[in-house]
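Troubleshooting log. The previous structure file for this entry was overwritten by mistake, so regenerating from the original sequence record. Sequence copied from the archived sheet and checked twice against the printout by T.R.
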Amino acid sequence: MTKAPRIASCFARLKAAGQTGLVAYLPVGYPTLQETPALVSAVIEGGASIVELGVPFSDPLADGATIQRATAQALGQGVRLADCLEVAARTRDRHPGVPLVFMGYYNTFLSYGLESFCDDAAQAGADGAIVVDLPPEEADAFRDCSAAAGLDLIFLLAPTSTEARIKKVASVAQGFIYCVSVSGVTGARAALPEYLPAFVAGVRAQTRLPLAIGFGVSLPEHVQAIGRFAEAAVVGSALVDVIDRSQPGERASGLRAFVAGLVGVSTAKSRGDN
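Regenerated output below.
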């Protein structure tokens, strides 16, 4: 199965424009499933280049307190993977050019059925998947299904990753590589670690794929700093914080303005829709 390579096209546009991409993570079903499509549209309208749709999971080992709480609330409302697929389909109809990536944990996809998930995700208009707890050594079955469906399987690397592990991930990664900025969990932080450029340089030496930096990104200066040595910044917990401090009727506008501030564009400008 083939489809338009939206992720590759997105990074090509960013490179041509000299822009740093913003990958926006939103947990599906938080604060409610009914609000999620509007919140996804808001981050796109604010200037997000790629959207990660967070699939709620009971044991999100890589996530800090903010996302843990959000996904627990979504699970408590009965949100399941089928609902996430529906959100993707609705978003694809409204935003045909923006890459959509599912981000979750392996057991959720395995329980659904790997082949069924990949086929249904592609049908919904998704472009890839990030499986946080799936190491490349155990990813063959998922890679086969995702490749058959035309999805990119995106891997993560951490500052503690050895050169051998970096080479292994670089040999199988698709779309982009997600570089975790800290040896810890997700959550907004005041500053990026000083070792980050050297870590990213080590990954860069092994791949030509775009690199996205996540965990702890929450400020415009973080995005600006990341743009000096990587193609994109990933923000997640900070978006949940915006939702939490906004009134129910102002959540979408709050997200739109916050993302626009991160990427430095007008809230009237939306990228990737043409």
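The chain has one domain: 6-261. Archived copy saved in two places this time.
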